[in-house]
Design a protein that fits this description.
Blueprint lengths: L7 H10 L12 E2 L2 H11 L6 E5 L5 H9 L2 E6 L5 H7 L6 E5 L7 H9 L4 E6 L5 H10 L4 E9 H7 L10 H9 E9 L4 E2 L6 E8 L10 H13 L5 H6 L8 H11 L12 H11 L1
Parallel strand pairs: 2-3, 2-5, 3-4, 5-6
Antiparallel strand pairs: 1-8, 6-9, 7-9
Helix pairs in contact: 9-12, 11-12
């Protein structure tokens, strides 16, 4: 056992001892601030009844804390050179399993059956920012056993995930997240909390999955196609965005008719519509 890792001295010592070099391709930035670490743990609302799925444990910094507050931890690490390090830094804990693999290629249902009796995981991660959205949306869109997702992400992405209509950050990602989960921004995290220091500010966000979506829609795929079309060129009117979109087959007259039926101006932009309004538009156009 190497001791707690969540400070710069211990992290650097471990990296040097094991001759570990930062893998830029994996987006590796190690958190070295205990205050922020505790904010992540608290935001995740973990109990001893929970099995935590940690994505990208790195050298085990956050894994140590997760082991102490949860019933079980399943850590999935893509960098095979870190597996021997994890075996050593986590040697004092008997409630952790480490898998070497790409989380995007894992069968989450199978992992839940194997490690959590089929019950949903609570996901916790300091994600590589270049794959933040694919991982999160993969968990939300697919029928996988996940109760909540608490992650460190780029601050700009966190703001987009919880943005509301009319705000600058509001867009297709905001609407997609709001359909599947309740978003809570738990903390902002400055660059000096990491080794190496990233180029952007970070934030901790928790997404608690809904058991049922907050709006009912007859064709979910059509609704999201309309949303994507409305934000591809966000300064265009909603009519122009939809009629010019190759994914859809609606003319200006179709969209204007629907807007009139909904009591909206023909020159409205997608950035002011709520999720329920996009659902309503989709149902009318169907």
């Amino acid at each position: 056992m190497e001791g707690y890792l969540v400070n710069p001295k211990n992290t650097v010592e471990i990296l040097k001892r094991h001759n570990i070099h930062f893998q830029k391709k994996f987006g590796q930035n190690f958190l070295v601030d205990e205050h922020v670490m505790k904010k992540i743990i608290n935001a995740a609302q973990i109990t001893k009844d929970d099995c935590v799925l940690e994505i990208g444990p790195g050298i085990g910094t956050m894994t140590q804390f997760l082991c102490e507050v949860s019933g079980k931890v399943l850590a999935v690490e893509i960098d095979k050179t870190l597996i021997p390090v994890l075996e050593r830094t986590l040697s004092d804990y008997d409630n952790v399993s480490v898998i070497c693999g790409d989380i995007l290629r894992q069968d989450i249902k199978e992992l839940a059956e194997q490690y959590n009796n089929g019950r949903p995981f609570k996901v916790v991660a300091n994600l590589p920012y270049y794959i933040t959205t694919p991982i999160i949306m993969g968990f939300l869109e697919n029928d996988v056993p996940v109760e909540s997702i608490t992650v460190m992400v780029q601050k700009e992405v966190a703001e987009r995930m919880q943005a509301g209509p009319g705000s600058k950050a509001y867009g297709a990602l905001s609407l997609a997240v709001s359909y599947y989960a309740e978003a809570y921004l738990a903390a902002n995290v400055p660059q000096n909390c990491f080794i190496p220091r990233p180029n952007v500010a970070s934030a901790v966000i928790r997404l608690k999955k809904y058991k049922e979506p907050p709006v009912k829609v007859k064709n979910r795929e059509l609704m999201f196609a309309l949303i994507r079309a409305s934000f591809q060129q966000r300064r265009k009117t909603l009519c122009n965005g939809i009629k010019n979109n190759r994914e859809l087959n609606y003319g200006r007259e179709d969209v204007e008719r629907v807007l009139e039926q909904m009591g909206l101006d023909k020159g409205v932009r997608g950035e002011v519509l709520t999720l329920s309004q996009f659902a309503q538009m989709s149902d009318i156009l169907l």
